[in-house]
Design brief:
By secondary structure, the chain is of the alpha+beta class. The chain has two domains: 7-79, Monooxygenase (Up-down Bundle), CATH 1.20.1280; 90-211, no CATH class. 39% of the residues lie in helices and 24% in strands. The protein has helices spanning 7-26, 30-47, 53-59, 68-79, 90-96, 190-196, 201-211; strands spanning 119-123, 128-135, 138-154, 161-172, 179-187. Strands 1-2-3-4-5 form a five-stranded antiparallel β-sheet. Strand 3 and strand 4 form a beta hairpin. The protein is elongated and about 65 Å long. The relative contact order is 0.13.
Length: 212
C-alpha cells in the first residue's frame, strides 16, 4: 500500500497513541478507556480526511496499545506509510541564502526525513537560525537572529511547552534606511518542535507574521 499520510499527520498519530497508552496506564475503568478509544478514532478521522477503510484498518490497532513495546511497533508500522519531507540538498539551501557565503549547513545525510515537517538549524557562529520547508510554491527559506531565553514557554510553531528562544527577523522598512523587526518565541530544539508539530498551518502563519 502506498503512503497516505504526511509528516504532521504521522506526528499527530504518535501523539494520539501516547494518549491511549497514558489512559490505559492511569485507569482500569472500562468506560473511561472506551471513551478514549472513541475520541482517538474520531480525531484520526478528522485529521486524515477521506481516509479509506483499508487504510483505517492499519491504524485501528492504536486503540489497543497498552505497552511501550506495542507503541514502538505501531510507530514502525505506520511510518512506512508516511510521505517524507522531500530531501533538500546543500545546493538547494545555498540558493535560498545566496548572501550567506560562510553558512554552516547541517549534516543532511543524518536527517530522518519522515520525522520532520521543516528543516531548521542554528549557526552558532552568527546566532542565525535558519528554517527551510516546502509548500505549494516550492522550497522556502528564511532566517533570523536567535536569542536563547533559558526558560520554557509555548512555541509559536508547534504550540507546545518547550525550551524556547526569541527568533527575530528584520526587513527593510518603507522609509530609506529603516528596518522593521518582527519575531516570536520558538523551540530551541527543532527536533522536539517537529515531533510536536501536528498542524502545519502554525508554521506558515508564523512565517506570514515575521515577513509581512
Amino acid at each position: 500500500m502506498e503512503a497516505f499520510m504526511n509528516v504532521e499527520q504521522y506526528q499527530f498519530l504518535k501523539k494520539q497513541a501516547r494518549k491511549m497508552i497514558n489512559a490505559c496506564s492511569n485507569t482500569k475503568d472500562k468506560h473511561v478507556i472506551e471513551a478514549m478509544q472513541a475520541l482517538v478514532m474520531e480525531s484520526i478521522n478528522t485529521k486524515i480526511v477521506g481516509i479509506t477503510d483499508d487504510k483505517l484498518c492499519l491504524l485501528k490497532p492504536i486503540v489497543n496499545l497498552q505497552t511501550k513495546e506495542q507503541l514502538e511497533d505501531f510507530f514502525k508500522t505506520i511510518k512506512t506509510y508516511v510521505t517524507p519531507f522531500e530531501i533538500i540538498t546543500e545546493k538547494n539551501i545555498k540558493k535560498l541564502f545566496p548572501k550567506d557565503k560562510k553558512m554552516n549547513i547541517p549534516n543532511l545525510k543524518s536527517i530522518d526525513w519522515t520525522e520532520i515537517s521543516y528543516l531548521s538549524w542554528l549557526d552558532s557562529g552568527t546566532n542565525r537560525k535558519y528554517i527551510v520547508f516546502r509548500d505549494e510554491s516550492g522550497i522556502i527559506g528564511f532566517r533570523g537572529v536567535f536569542s536563547y531565553s533559558n526558560k520554557k514557554g509555548f512555541c509559536t510553531i508547534c504550540n507546545q511547552h518547550h525550551q524556547v528562544g526569541m527568533f527575530m527577523s528584520s526587513k527593510k522598512g518603507k522609509a530609506l534606511g529603516t528596518y522593521v523587526k518582527r519575531g516570536n518565541y520558538i523551540c530551541t530544539d527543532s527536533t522536539a518542535c517537529n515531533e510536536s508539530l501536528t498542524d502545519f498551518t502554525r508554521l506558515t502563519d508564523f512565517l506570514k507574521v515575521i515577513t509581512e
